[in-house]
Amino acid sequence: MAAWQRYMAHTPADAVLILGDLFEMWVGDDMRSEPFEAQCTQTLRGAGQRLWLGVMVGNRDFLVGQELLAACQGHALPDPLLLDAFGQRHVLTHGDAWCLGDTDYMAFRQMVRNPTWQQQFLQASLPQRLATARGIRAQSQARKDAPTMETWADVDAGVAAAHLTDAGSLSLIHGHTHKPASEPFGLPGATRHVLSDWDLDEAPARAEVLRLSNQGLVRLSLEQACAPLT
After folding, report:
1. In 3D, which of 180, 134, 185 has the Cα closest to residue 161?
2. CB count, 10 Å around CB of 85?
3. How far is 91 from 206, CA to CA, in rounded Å?
């Protein structure tokens, strides 16, 4: 967490947009009372007080709600989001809703994004919700380790093309797949930029930032992202 805290405290950016899965799991905004999550909330609050902080939920933290955002002075981002800045148009999404080939996950997603399911789930005690979430994460990890995952756990190119066309954009930015890259995708002339997950315990360590400015979109290392603008 120290690397992320350093970035949030020292980025020279005017705005930070988080595109989901900031938390490994989030079972309700009362998780702010847990020690680790309390530190994260404090870090977000510090950032929200000095820059514009936007938060899009992901498949692991889709229960992030208004209580957390208010505590952090953050702003909820719709998924997908059309970002029009510096004369450029970018389509932003977490990406999980577009992984149509992962039919098991899509069925699960439809269930847990249902407001009735969420209301019933949030009525359980925090320990009960955490236990349920840990069980779901264990099942998800087992599926992720399956040898066939590479063939279906990716954003559907047709869906991406449709969204890019509707938005009049040739740039897609998403996370979820844990395969950081900038590559042609979806439409002729279009590029998708897949966000890096942050794992500094792996070798090599992974922690990248995409930065948008009037000079375009660039992929930065953690050191570059924390350096003052020149």
Report:
1. 185
2. 11
3. 24
What average pLDDT does the chain have?
93
| pLDDT digits 0-9 by tens, 36-78 | 999 999 999 999 999 999 999 999 999 999 999 999 999 999 9
| Pair 79, 57: CB distance under 8 Å | yes
Using CA atoms, how far apart are residues 13 and 213, in angstroms rounded to an integer? 9
Measure the CA angle with vertex 102, ends 115 and 164; round to 5°: 80
Euclidean distance between CA atoms 56 and 36, whole angstroms: 20
Residues 194 and 155: beta-carbon distance below 8 Å = no
* Tokens coding 130: 């955490």
Nearest alpha carbon to residue 176 among 118, 98, 111: 98
Exposure string of 169-182, with b = 16+ CB inside 10 Å and e = fewer, is bbbbbbbbbeeeee
At 115-169, the pLDDT tens digits run 999 999 999 999 999 999 999 888 877 666 665 555 567 999 999 999 999 999 9
What are the helix and strand counts (H, E) for the chain?
9, 10
Say what the pTM is: 0.93
